[in-house]
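User: Please fill in residues for this 145-position structure.
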């Protein structure tokens, strides 16, 4: 047999606690030795290299943040430009469509003006002449009626 009080120190956990097992006649006794508690208000002094690292990290973060902001701003400006171009294209299309409608209406009105309406009697003839005067005024045409 070995010694009467063998001392076995096993570190079984990855925790910060040490486990000591003492074997003697009464059987094994296990007790924990926790790390020393730190005193309140005491912090380890940061070395100047870690302070410089922190400053470098903050500078890198700020530059990345600035780049992201610039990228967002460029994207916003580009999006506004595209939206403006789309709006201008829609307006131009609507103008062309309105011009086409106006030309169609002008052709219909010109055809109405050129028709011979002498076959109609007085109450209807008066309505037709009023309509011809209205059409002539709209398009700036001369109306002899």
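Assistant: Residues filled in for all 145 positions:
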């Amino acid at each position: 047999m070995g010694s009467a009080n063998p001392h076995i120190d096993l570190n079984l956990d990855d925790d910060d606690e040490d486990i000591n097992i003492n074997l003697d006649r009464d059987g094994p006794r296990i007790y924990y030795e926790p790390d020393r508690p730190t005193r309140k208000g005491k912090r380890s002094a940061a070395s100047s290299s870690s302070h410089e690292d922190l400053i470098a990290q903050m500078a890198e973060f700020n530059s990345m943040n600035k780049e992201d902001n610039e990228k967002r701003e460029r994207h916003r400006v580009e999006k506004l430009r595209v939206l403006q171009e789309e709006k201008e294209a829609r307006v131009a299309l609507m103008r062309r469509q309105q011009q086409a409608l106006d030309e169609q209406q002008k052709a219909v009105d010109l055809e109405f003006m050129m028709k011979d309406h002498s076959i109609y009697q007085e109450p209807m003839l008066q309505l037709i002449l009023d309509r011809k005067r209205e059409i002539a005024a709209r398009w700036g045409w001369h109306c002899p009626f």
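For context: Residues 48-114 form the longest helix (67 residues).
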